[in-house]
Design goal:
By secondary structure, this protein is an alpha+beta fold. About 40% of the residues lie in helices and about 25% in strands. Strand 7 and strand 8 form a beta hairpin.
Length: about 250
């Protein structure tokens, strides 16, 4: 039979061993938890950077798409202003697109394939002549955008680009065969949406004199993009819409 003293020493050793084992387990769990938390933090950081890069890319692509659309609108407006009718322009663009698709679809035979059929003859180039505009009655000439007018009411410059901080934006033209009392109006648009409209009736006949309209910050906020303005005599367009741009820098 063991003595009480020996039994006590044995119990003390068992308790010490149990305590050491529990402490080692707790330390191991603590280290593993710390490693897991570090990994989670790294994953979150990496995910945040990836999302930020993706968002930056999307923002850049979006801005480039917007710039391309605005450049296309600006070019279209100027082609129309040079005398190209919008209906003809749309038809010509469609026809050119058809030619491009047909040319891309035409396959050339391999150099070593002697039995291959001859390549299809490319379609003829599309040549479309813009219709000649005819003007009867009141008309406008030398319509342009400017930053101001002189003492003769004519433009002091020819400026199709303005800044968001510009104070005024003018459209100026020479008017012919306009009778006194006729209604001369201007309609200003941004991306096709009307933002301002003005009109007046001259007291005397106009034949070769300059006329002008302008907008300022109180009429419409000068936001970056493609704008246009059109002038009408008694509700009938006197010329094709004239495009201009507001640029950021």
């Amino acid at each position: 039979m063991k003595s009480p003293r020996g039994l006590g020493i044995w119990l003390l050793l068992v308790l010490l061993l149990t305590s050491c084992t529990a402490s080692a387990v707790e330390q191991t769990a603590t280290v593993e938890q710390s490693i897991a938390e570090t990994s989670i933090a790294e994953l979150r950081a990496t995910s945040t950077v990836a999302r930020a890069r993706m968002q930056t890319t999307l923002d850049y692509v979006g801005s480039r798409v917007t710039e391309a659309a605005e450049a296309q609108d600006f070019l279209r407006y100027n082609l129309i202003n040079l005398g190209t009718e919008s209906a003809w322009l749309s038809t010509a663009i469609w026809q050119l697109g058809e030619v491009g698709e047909q040319a891309t679809a035409t396959a050339l035979p391999a150099a070593s394939d002697t039995d291959a059929e001859p390549a299809a003859t490319p379609p003829p180039a599309v040549i479309v002549t813009p219709p000649t505009a005819t003007t009867i009655g009141p008309r406008l000439e030398n319509m342009l955008m400017a930053s101001g007018v002189d003492s003769r009411d004519c433009a002091i410059d020819n400026n199709p680009r303005f800044m968001p901080a510009s104070s005024h934006i003018y459209v100026v033209a020479q008017a012919y065969n306009v009778a006194a009392g006729a209604t001369i109006s201007s309609t200003w648009r941004r991306q096709g949406s009307e933002v301002a409209h003005f009109s007046f009736q001259p007291r005397n006949n106009i034949n070769g004199d300059c006329i002008w309209f302008f907008i300022d910050q109180s009429d419409a906020e000068f936001t970056v993009g493609v704008w246009s303005v059109e002038i009408a005599f008694d509700g009938v367009l006197a010329a094709a819409p004239l495009a201009f741009q507001i640029v950021s820098g």
